[in-house]
Amino acid sequence: xxxxxxAKDKIIVALDLxxxxxxxxxxxxxxxxxxxxxxxxxxxxxxxxxxxxxxxAFGAKIFLDLKFHDIPNTxxxxxxxxxxxxxxxxxIHLSGGSEMCQAAVKxxxxxxxLILGVTVLTSQTEATLAEIGINRSVTQQVxxxxxxxxxxxxxxLIASPLELQPLRQEFGKSLVIVTPGVRPTWSEAGxxxxxxxxxxxxxxxxxxxxxxxxxxxxxxxxxxxxxxASELLQ
Length: 234
Ligand code: C5P
Hints:
Blueprint: H1 2-9, E1 11-14, H2 20-30, E2 36-40, H3 41-57, E3 61-68, H4 72-85, E4 89-93, H5 98-108, E5 114-118, H6 126-131, H7 138-151, E6 156-158, H8 161-171, E7 176-179, H9 198-203, E8 208-211, H10 213-216, H11 221-231
Parallel strand pairs: 1-2, 1-8, 2-3, 3-4, 4-5, 5-6, 6-7, 7-8
Cytidine-5'-monophosphate (C5P) is lined by residues 14, 16, 40, 122, 180-181, 190, 192, 210-213.
């Protein structure tokens, strides 16, 4: 029983739905099973802080995925506001540099909100890194930005399944890793090109999994969520 609570707590359901009403319906459908919801740019633009508070009122924790990347002063105050809103996790772009990371930590103050650093987006490749003047492999860039995170008080990272092994090799368990891009074998791959199954990602070292469409686009989201949670135990 205890184990199944732990498995559910590792799944963050991405509420990437086209309206606040459809996201609200999804939260109601999933009921008390879900511990974490991710609210991203689209839903935040649609539902705003009021929607975040509404989901929190259901008793779930919030991963506010707005990927802050701005001058340090702006990031500090944005993190402060997100923490005041009740975000339990939030994201910043590590490519903003050390001063911006430190400003984010300052903005968090004494809140327990986990700040996660985005290294290289899963849509990026060596070629798109080269376009912006970064001439090294995706893995080298991920490790370099993760080193910067750790040195500046950012305790968590977003990382694709492909980056889990190199990151755990380099940093052990000293960083919390949240992993998107996972697909159960029974689900449509969609536009996910680099995917692992949820249990593979946990075995490779993910602490949390972000899962959207395999749950939210399923004809029975509640059953899909439970099935993934039970597969994590195998
Ligand atoms: O694909 P899925 O619906 O499970 O995506 C859930 C979340 O994972 C999205 O909100 C997105 O932030 C993230 N994602 C990602 N890389 C991808 C696809 C999705 O980081 N290739």
